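Co-fold these.
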Amino acid sequence: MKTKIAELRKERGITQTDLANAVGVTRQTITSLEVGKYTASLVLAYKIARYFDKTIEEVFDFSEVEVFDE
Amino acid sequence: MNDFKKKMKRRILGTLLFIALAIIVIMMSMNMKDRTFIMGVATAFIVMNLSDLFGYFKTLRSEKKLRERYITENDERSKEIRYKAADAVLHITQFILAIVYALTKSYNPMIAYTIVGVVIVQYILYNLMKFYYSKKI
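Predicted complex below.
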């Protein structure tokens, strides 16, 4: 899943380690999220969005998520 | 973080209990004929647990280390990696056991029966755990 984490982080001059410590994950998890290899849980997505003072949709791109309509 | 602190204290108690049990095992095996093997295993167990114990005390002494350990243990990506690795290991083990069974059944039925027993126990435990977690999660 694409995210704007790297963009938001750079805008604010925050390192991956700072963000990782703030939301309670390892730096490697932030790296994986930024490159789109790992999809965050709802709780982690909420924590990251809250850290940047944004909504989850503003940080995470759900456009490629398949939704099954009836 | 207080809950994690309590968890660490519980781990210390558990580890101390295991060390005490290992010491009892060593003392009980003093007069046994094949004591070297039992004593060796129990001593290794004590050394491993002492190392864990040292780590727990070190972590509890500093808030920074406690937080670092909490993050390392609870990181959701690391947990997912562990689950996937465990699942893969289970399937690889079953595959290896199936091959060993096929190779040994004609010339050593005893090994083959043991393997069948291991596979059955593994299958039962796997399904019990699946049932337990399906109710828990």
